[in-house]
Structure formats: structure tokens, C-alpha cells
Amino acid sequence: MQIPVFVSAPTHLNPSQEIVRARIVTLLEEFGFEPRALSRTDYPLDYPLREVAVIARSCFGAVILGFEQFRSLNGVSKLGTSMEQTLSEPRLFPSPWNQLEAGILFGMRRPLLIFREDGITGGIFDVGVTDVFVHRMPDSDPSMGDPQELRNVVLRWQVRVRNLYYAFD
After folding, report:
1. Backbone φ and ψ of 150, nearest 5°
2. Which residue in 85, 100, 152, 155 is deepest, having the highest Cβ count within 10 Å?
3. Residue-level pLDDT at 56
4. What b/e sequence results for 22-36 when a residue is b if at least 16 CB atoms lie within 10 Å of its CB, and e otherwise?
5. What is the mean pLDDT of each run of 10 residues along the chain (169 residues)?
6. How far from 101 is each of 86, 89, 121, 125, CA to CA, in Å?
7. Which of 118, 111, 148, 149 is nearest to 133 (CA)?
8. What's the number of domains the chain is made of?
9. What is the CATH number of the domain that holds 93?
């Protein structure tokens, strides 16, 4: 029996991002998890957010993959406030669905495992926002870095997921 977990990731990824997503999904499956997500074909006509909540209710944990989906090369942050700032370098943004899906699952008290690409910040990807550690996205080349590091991160998270799952048994 596989334990269902929600995976929040953009539908459209570049080849390098897709390799990382597939690597994480494969690892989840090796640990006995069934990755679940709202796909484009699942979108109801009116309320995709409601469908996310329906899927999330049957999941016992969540993996949030903060891949870059939009890049702003210039702009002004916090326009018209005392904190106004002209951007001096590109700003990277994840899918807004990462924020929505993470919020739903956090509200349901599901254990979160959060990864973000370098340069992704804001909301759920800010350090110290939740009691969850935000991890750097693994490299698309598994030979880069410590190959055991990703397994160890998932191993620590899966204990909380299994505790929640077996508490319902």
C-alpha cells in the first residue's frame, strides 16, 4: 500500500527542471509514496482550487517544488512605500500554485517538504515562515553534490508522514 502525498510542481518545466522533478518523484515512489497532484486534465470548469483541496484531503504529506516559472529583469518592489526599491538584478518567481497548494496542505497540518531553486524567495519559500526547513533544489545531475543528501532529507520527512498515516489506521 502506497501512502498518498501531494506534489506541488508547475505543469510546464524546462528539461533540466523535469529531470529534477522526475528524480524526486522516483525517490518518493522508492520510499513507498504515491505522488498526487492536480493536472491540467483534472481542472474542473469552475474551481480548480477546490479540486486541490479534495486531493489534499486524501494525502498525508506534501512536497513543494519551487521551480522558476517567471523572471523579471527589472522593476520596482513595494512601489509607493517607504520600502520601495528598484530591482538591481533579475527576480525569480515560482508558480503561484506552489503558494496556494502549500497553504492548503499546511492548513490541513500535513508535513511539508519544500525545495526551491536558487533565487526563488517569498511566501512559503522564505526561511522561517513555517516550522519547515526550506531545502535547495537538487541538481539535475545526480553526480553533483552528495547523492545521499536528498535521500536523507526525504527520510527525515517521511517519518512525520508515516506517523500521520498510521495515526489514522
Report:
1. -65, -45
2. 100
3. 96
4. eebbebbeebebebe
5. 95 95 95 88 68 94 97 93 93 95 96 95 83 85 77 94 86
6. 30, 28, 16, 13
7. 111
8. 1
9. 3.40.50.360
Q: Smallest Cα–Cα separation from 138: which of 120, 112, 157, 115?
A: 115
CA 77 to chain centroid, in Å, comes to 24
Residues 6+ apart with CB under 8 A from 156: none
Q: How far apart are CA 76 and CA 137, in angstroms?
A: 27
Q: What is the CA radius of gyration of the chain?
A: 17
pLDDT at 46: 67
Stretch (H or E) spanning 20? helix 15-30
Cell triple for 92: 525569480
pLDDT at 132: 74
Phi, psi values for residue 124, rounded to 5°: -65, -20
**Residue 113: which of 42, 35, 43 has the closest Cα?**
35
Residue 44: the pLDDT is: 56
- DSSP assignment, residue 152? H
How many residues are present in the chain? 169
3-state secondary structure 58-118: CCCCEEEEECCCEEECCCEECCCCCCCEECCCCEEECCHHHHHHHHHHHHCCCCEEEEECC
DSSP state of 125: G
Range of the domain at 111: 3-168
